[in-house]
Amino acid sequence: MRDAEAYERGFARLTAHTVDPLLNLVRRSRAIRLLDVGCGTGVVTGAAIALGAEVTAVDSDLDMLELTARRHPYATVRLATLPELPFPDETFDAVTGNFVINHIEDVPRAVDELHRVLRPGGTLALSWWKREEMTATSVIAEAAGIAVPPPLHDVAAAMREAGFSGVAVDTMRWCHRVDLDAWWTDVLAAGGPRFGVISERPPEEIERIRQEYLRRAEPYAAAGFPVCALLAHGTR
Ligand SMILES: C[S@@+](CC[C@H](N)C(=O)[O-])C[C@H]1O[C@@H](n2cnc3c(N)ncnc32)[C@H](O)[C@@H]1O
Predict the structure, then answer these.
(1) How many domains in the chain?
(2) Which residues lie with the beta carbon below 6 Å from any ligand 1 atom?
(3) For a pocket test of ligand 1, which of 66, 103, 176 has the largest count of ligand atoms closer than 8 A to its C-beta?
(4) In Å, what is the CA distance from 206 to each residue of 68, 90, 138, 215?
(5) Residue of the nearest CA to atom 26 in ligand 1?
(6) Closest to 82 (Cα-Cα) out of 119, 112, 127, 53
(7) CATH code, domain with 89
(8) How many angstroms is it from 51 CA to the middle of ligand 1?
(9) Which residues of 178-207 are buried (b: 16+ CB within 10 A; e: fewer)?
(10) Tell me, what's the pLDDT at 51?
């Protein structure tokens, strides 16, 4: 379980950057029934509702899902873990997944499942981090000696294999400007599969890692952490 409010204060301000590009893609297919997978605290869910979509939001983490339900009472929320979804075939006009595919082990199976729940002509849009250019988290991982995760399965290839057409991948780069102390506190509190382990270490070890993080992060204090997201999209 994550501290969803810490995620919302910290990470969700970073992931919010790709919400407009994701929703611009799905708007092309006149999406009314939208599924937001790995909804987290609901950054995509809320924006899609504001655009008039009927949003179903799913996440594998109950704390995240409860916060989405509180923040966005017009969303239908369901606990669900990709690669399995509790919906009949062809239920949705569009599916968005903002930074969730990078948490999934079996990418081809997950993409097949997303294909199944989309109607013909519907749009899938998935974003993930380009790890080599994700300084906002690599400074913490390097300070803590956390191993680089294995390369992500080729998402665009999985989409083509699942039967999507017009598959393309867009690249987005920007700088994430954030107070360095607040970022450290919120990333650690939000936990998650990579950074949750830091909080389990002895207090003096955590303080040593924090100092090392601040040393590595200092060059980014003024202009922000350079980050890069990739955004794959295609039509069912
Ligand atoms: C980095 S967060 C992104 C949250 C949100 N989409 C955003 O843009 O802020 C990843 C989310 O995916 C969820 N998640 C991880 N693995 C999942 C899975 N297999 N199925 C569904 N959700 C998953 C996590 O609980 C978390 O809320």
Answers:
(1) 1
(2) 12, 15, 37-40, 43-44, 59-61, 64, 81-82, 98-100, 103-104
(3) 103
(4) 30, 48, 16, 14
(5) 40
(6) 112
(7) 3.40.50.150
(8) 22
(9) bebeebbebbbbbbbebbbebeeeeeeebe
(10) 92
Q: What is the CA radius of gyration of the chain?
A: 18
pTM (predicted TM-score): 0.95
Give which of 70, 82, 66, 15 is closest to 44, Cα–Cα: 15
Q: Kindly state the percentage of the chain with pLDDT values over 70.
A: 98
Question: At which residue do the structure tokens 């504001």 appear?
Answer: 50
Atom of ligand 1 nearest to the CA of 110: 19
pLDDT digits (tens, 9 = 90+) for 86-139: 999 999 999 999 999 999 999 999 999 999 999 999 999 999 999 999 999 999
Give the nearest ligand 1 atom to 18 CA.
Answer: 8
Cis ω for the linkage preceding 83 (within 30 of 0): yes
Query: Which protein residue's CA is at the shortest distance from atom 25 of ligand 1?
Result: 61
Domain containing 119: what range? 4-235
